[in-house]
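Reviewer 2 asked us to include a model.

Predict the structure of this chain.
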Amino acid sequence: MDNGFTRPFNRLFFLAMLVVFSPWPAFAQYGAVDRHARQAPDSLSRHLPGLAAYLSEDAQNETEKARAIYTWVSGYLQYDHQAERKGQRINQHLRDILDRRRGLCMDYALLYQAVCRYAGLQCEKVDGYAAPRLAEGRQVPEKADHAWNAVWADGQWHLLDATWGEVQDESRLAYNASYFFTPPEVFILTHLPEQPMWQLLPCPVSVEAFAQAHTALYRQVTQQDTCWSAADSIAATLSLSPDSRRLALARQSFEFNDTPYTKRQWAAALFDRAAAFDEQTESLPYPDSANTIVRLRQQAIEQAEKALQLSEPQTWQRELYAQLLLNQAIGRYQLPGGHPLSTDAEATVAILETAKAQLLLLPPEGYFRGYALQQCNRLLEQLSGGN
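Predicted model (structure tokens):
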């Protein structure tokens, strides 16, 4: 995500019209909040709880608290052009961001989120696509290239972009404001989130709609009827466990913008989910929990098989799938006599044959491949002898 200084608007004349009709309040009301934030002692950047307390101390409500953090982050960090030229993030941890005082859009978003959480504000990092410069057209790239934030303040979600906070572009000149709590119908002109719920619109726009000229897109979003509740979708997604949430977000990204990249990301999330199911079996006693173990492994196998339909797996992912199949076959074979699964040798053989086929696709020099093939062939021989 290295598109932090993309010029977001190209039609000053159009935006001047938006100012006339927009209910966006004047940002002069934040003058005192901004001054207080800019006077934060530099030493507090080494102690985020103390920094959050300082930034919050004069805030009259959650909106002013969010504003103070926004102003501090936008002023504290500079955009990392060195990292952009290298095409990769230099910062690996939050401490790197604070020490270097430079970052890409993800670093701005992560730092803003961290300070918000210390200040007691619910904040999420939002990944998505930034509208490219006019000369580049408005084609949405294969993968997300920008990051910003959504924060819950005074009873509703709001959007902001701390990376663009200090950019003196046409938008800022027209609105006399930065990218703080931008109305969703204006924010969507330059920011398309991976998950439609973060558009915060009464009816989300498509990738194709985002590629329209600003005038057409603004007309669409201001005249559309309500077709869903973004707040309900956000609440449902955030209520999920971390593993389930990651899977849900990856699926939403793929369904919204079907590209090779989002397909790979969803497949990776499915494999991670498969691994999580498998890990749950490790602490279960055998044979007392045999039925539960078989069920969890079957769920893991189903997740892995869905991932394989989406994208060519990495080596470790194929190894995981083969191991899941092999363990499932061994588990069925070792079930107490008379158990329906233990007597269904034909199904167990089919599982082993699938595992063997996957193992043969692995690099021949791999240790796992050789070891697992021996196990697989041994069990196949035992089952064949039993028949």
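The beta strands are 78-79, 102-103, 122-130, 146-153, 156-160, 191-193. Residues 260-282 form the longest helix (23 residues). We have added this to the supplementary material.
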